[in-house]
Design a protein that fits this description.
- The structure is a single chain.
- By secondary structure, this protein is of the alpha/beta class.
- It has a single domain, classed as TIM Barrel (Alpha-Beta Barrel), CATH 3.20.20.380.
- Helix content is 42%, strand content 14%.
- The chain has 13 helices and eight strands.
């Protein structure tokens, strides 16, 4: 997460336009869907056998083509202990059921990753979540990983968890977290990190990003939006932290219309520590659902895929304010 100064800079200007192309791996997967999964696999070379995670990605996209995907509510679960612990999982799932949220970005601590049974636990949780109608997404975020000398640590985590049937890998690697103003070198290292991750990941790779990189041209920097499609980033959650639903809708509309091939989502904050004009913190669940309906009516026709709330710890599940 960005520090308070950066949170208050959510509406600064952004990066140059970019053309979104299909990642080669995703194109090959779509070809499998067109000709029939079983018949294609019958002729595939052994090296092309897909992992459980890739097969699940095919299953999801076969049921719901990309161009017509439904609007989904998502939430960042940075502290996933209650979800992963069998003793508290049922109660946590009941809370999630009451919110109408479908997309779960599941964060992991270093302690959780070090547990011997972490892969088995995560796979069991992913299966349970899908059976209940949720979409489990692996959430990873540490700004240190963008430095070349630390990148291998992120790749090692992906390698360790590669057999888990997550729907996607969501990276909260915000280049601004490494210092402001952002030097061009940090943008280059951010993009190089995403490229390495996309090459190593068995899941589609998504990112959270401040929307500045998708609005206006910023000279003197590597053109991040121009490079993202070629390195395999499949989806972007635009961080537009403002209490004004109209303002966030207008900005998202402008970006989605400018780049119609990109799969966007809108990210909003409910964190109480932010400035009141930047967060929906303290709002009742009914108000958040009302705003969700507003954004859906405005943005779904432009192929925006849903709303992501930051974060679950503060999401209202009772009769709050």
């Amino acid at each position: 997460m960005l520090n308070e100064m950066l949170r208050r800079d959510r509406e600064s200007s952004a990066m140059a336009p970019w053309w979104v192309l299909l990642k080669a791996k995703k194109f090959q997967m779509r070809q499998l869907l067109v000709c029939g999964l079983l018949s294609c696999l019958a002729f595939a070379a052994p090296a092309e056998v897909m992992s459980p995670a890739q097969l699940h990605f095919l299953e999801v996209n076969a049921a719901e083509p990309e161009a017509t995907q439904a609007w989904r509510r998502g939430v960042y679960i940075w502290d996933s202990r209650a979800l992963l612990n069998p003793a508290t999982r049922t109660d946590e799932l009941s809370r999630l059921d009451r919110t109408g949220i479908q997309r779960l970005y599941i964060g992991l601590s270093a302690e959780q990753l070090a547990q011997p049974e972490v892969v088995r636990t995560l796979d069991a949780v992913a299966i349970t979540l899908r059976k209940r109608g949720f979409e489990p997404v692996l959430l990873l975020g540490d700004p240190d990983w963008m430095a070349p000398e630390n990148r291998a640590s992120l790749i090692a985590i992906i390698s360790k968890l590669k057999s888990v049937s997550f729907s996607a890998l969501h990276l909260d690697l915000e280049v601004e977290q490494r210092g402001w103003p952002v030097p061009a070198k940090h943008v280059r290292e951010w993009l190089d990190t995403l490229k390495h991750v996309a090459a190593a990941s068995p899941w589609p790779v998504e990112i959270s990003s401040h929307y500045r990189w998708f609005t206006e041209e910023m000279g003197g920097f590597p053109c991040a939006p121009c490079e993202l499609p070629s390195i395999g980033v499949s989806k972007v959650s635009l961080m537009i932290y403002t209490r004004s639903a109209e303002r966030s809708a207008q900005l998202t509309e402008k970006i989605a219309q400018r780049w119609p091939a990109v799969r966007f989502r809108l990210a909003q904050s409910i964190e109480p520590q932010l400035a009141p004009e930047e967060t929906w913190g303290g709002a009742a669940q009914a108000l958040l659902q009302e705003q969700d309906s507003f954004w859906r009516a405005r943005l779904q026709p432009l192929a925006v895929g849903g709303i992501d709330w930051q974060e679950w710890e503060y999401y209202p599940t009772g009769q709050q304010l």
